[in-house]
Design brief:
Layout (H helix, E strand, L loop, with lengths): L2 H11 L2 E5 L6 H17 L4 E4 L25 E5 L17 E6 L10 E4 L6 H11 L8 H15 L9 H11 L5 H9 L3 H13 L1 E2 L4 E6 L1 H7 L21 E7 L5 E7 L5 H5 L4 E2 L3 E6 L2 H19 L1
Parallel strand pairs: 1-2, 1-3, 3-4, 4-5, 7-8
Antiparallel strand pairs: 6-7, 8-9, 9-11, 10-11
Length: 316
């Protein structure tokens, strides 16, 4: 029996299913989480299906979360999508369920759950959820609501199909989703557009990015700067990919200071492998897109030096 068949069997067994994803969700986190929820609601209308976690203001156009009491977890199946390690799961009550399933496309460096389906070759977790529905066309119902969410997740994690993780299968699945009658153009605009304050921060980033001779880039966004622009941490996600359009930039880090003083580190690359670097600094992720943490500016400088070394080695 395949892991997908095992997951479907567990879904059929439970009358109550609660779906989580990671903190500070992006379109793929919400797309996979709520896309799966919509598939299950359409397929099993008699079951209780919940989606939980914090709501991100800028992504309300995709989905809203639900508030559930602790007792709802009693005897429930919990599914977590798009989350590599347990500490990043939004709403730590995921532990209260009877059984836990992990569905993810990040490297499985920190396994959790009773049943695990990880596919690091998938462009996104939304691609995996779509594949799951397509594997069982006579047993699972993929409707327009789910298709819209899953398409948004794929678009988000592939950078509109520009990133290396985009495969022929990714495009085939996106084509299948586009056959459903949702407004893909409007959805793309909503994903892409940003508030004026974030646009102004983008200008700051381009003006202040530091790049060495091997293409290692660095931008520090201090709390003072974020306050000046009226931006919170979740909104900085919109600027993380911007250095990638600069031809001199090969790999880069965006260092976002948190209210507590430490720095959230977003790492991206056009070629050099960066997830091993991220693991050394309390993080991890994909080979070309990872996250980490730096306790102070000294560790920020250390991480940037490591990005420089990686870029230098890659150029040789």
């Amino acid at each position: 029996m395949t892991v997908q068949s095992e997951i479907l069997a567990e879904i059929k067994t439970y009358d109550r299913i609660i779906i989580h994803r990671h903190q500070r969700p992006d379109p793929d986190a919400l797309g996979s989480q709520v896309g799966l929820a919509e598939i299950l609601r359409a397929t099993f209308p008699q079951k209780e299906i919940y989606q939980v976690g914090e709501t991100v203001e800028g992504l309300r156009f995709l989905a809203e979360m639900q508030i559930v009491d602790d007792q709802v977890y009693e005897g429930a199946l919990v599914i977590v999508t798009d989350t590599a390690n347990a500490p990043r799961i939004s709403d730590d009550r995921f532990k209260l369920g009877e059984k836990l399933i992990k569905i993810d496309h990040h490297p499985n460096d920190e396994p959790y759950g009773d049943l695990v389906w990880v596919d690091t070759k998938a462009s996104s977790c939304s691609e995996m959820i779509t594949e799951f529905a397509l594997m069982f066309p006579n047993e699972l119902t993929l409707n327009t609501s789910a298709a819209r969410l899953l398409y948004a997740g794929i678009v988000g994690d592939t950078g509109r199909f520009l990133y290396p993780a985009t495969t022929a299968r990714t495009l085939e699945i996106a084509a299948d989703l586009r056959r459903y009658p949702f407004d893909a153009s409007a959805l793309n605009r909503e994903i892409e557009q940003m508030p004026m304050k974030v646009a102004k921060l983008s200008g700051y980033l381009y003006q202040n990015i530091q790049v060495d001779e091997n293409g290692a880039g660095k931008v520090i966004l201090s709390q003072e700067l974020l306050s000046q622009y009226g931006i919170d941490d979740s909104e900085t996600a919109a600027v993380v990919s911007l250095p990638g359009v600069i031809d001199e930039v090969l790999a880069w880090g965006i260092f976002v200071q948190q209210p507590e003083g430490y720095y959230r580190v977003r790492l991206r690359s056009k070629g050099p492998i960066i997830n091993e670097l991220a693991k050394k600094h309390h993080g991890g992720g994909h080979p070309l897109a990872s996250g980490a943490s730096a306790k102070d500016l000294a560790e920020v400088a250390e991480i940037y030096d490591e990005i420089k070394e990686i870029c230098h080695a890659y150029q040789r």
